Amino acid sequence: MTTQHARDLGTLPKAHLHLHFTGSMRIGTLADLAAQHGIPLPEALTESWPPRLHATDERGWFRFQRLYDVARSCVRGEADLRRLVREAAEDDAAEGSRWLEIQVEPTSYAPFVGGLTPALEIILDEARAASLEVGIGVGVIVAASRVRHPLDARTLARLAVRYAGSRPGDVVGFGLSNDERRGQLLDFAPAFEIARRGGLALVPHAGELLGPASVQDTLSVLRPDRIGHGVRCVEDPRVMHEVADAEVTLEVCPGSNVSLGVYPRASEVPLPALLEAGIPVALGADDPLLLGTRLVAQYAMARQDLGLDDEELATLAAGSVRGSQAPEEVRRQALADIEHWLTNASVARGAQGPELVGAPLSRHSEGSDQPAPSSS
Asked: Of residues 78, 95, 208, 312, which has the active-site annotation?
């Protein structure tokens, strides 16, 4: 691996497949919303931002989750939901993304807008509008939380399937997030089967806080299309080869791995080993609000700390596009532009155009599902 070239990583066409809704928030937006709603912010989200996390033990994870909960409590109402979607689209488009799959657990926002269904519809509607106006396709992943009851996951899976599709403003996948040390994976399998039958991509988290057994169990129990993180499969060559044989894309987030203490420094993130094993990889930013790095920074770490050259970075970008649920015309154009990036000093960031946008979002239900409070 070499670093002979230094093409602009912001113009490298790519897809972003691992970005959490609250975690996508700009730090300035958090300050605005906190002031608007009268919510005090801890020093870790003001003067000392980004916070020092290291969440591999229970105490560290509790601190990470507490900061996340504070940030989420500042998102109250339709205008706030729309602002987060719009700004995430703008930020990703500015970094060369052609397609964004933003992951949301709508339970926490539901009380402010009349229920689960309106909360999801607002997010989908703004995703569609941003796709038309910002120049990036935005799909939505509905994620269940491992710290909530598995029956809640089934409710979310059924809701997600009602809005399933493959265009901007559609639900394109179903995930499982929060502390992977919590809950029993088998208990969530029925929810994933609902999502599978509904045509959604299955994208659970595994293999960051826990080791290769977590990845292996996820492969066998949930049969995912992608795995959020999954980096610790390298600790068992047999599991690593299972991931490669299954052609499951790993959403690797180097900034998260370092900030949460999984690896002491970016140079130890096992990205090269994953690529050498033939595993499809898509780089993701995870939670920029708490981690302090966005998508291009992940590619910069791969270049500067792991020694990947531009051809290998282009391979990562292509892996993100192929692993996405983007419409075929978006994938085809992005892959062509990645090749163009390799053979030219830069590539223009072109808008996707109106051909990305499907029919206007219709309300499938006017229900007002009232959820229990969420801790995810």
From this structure: 208
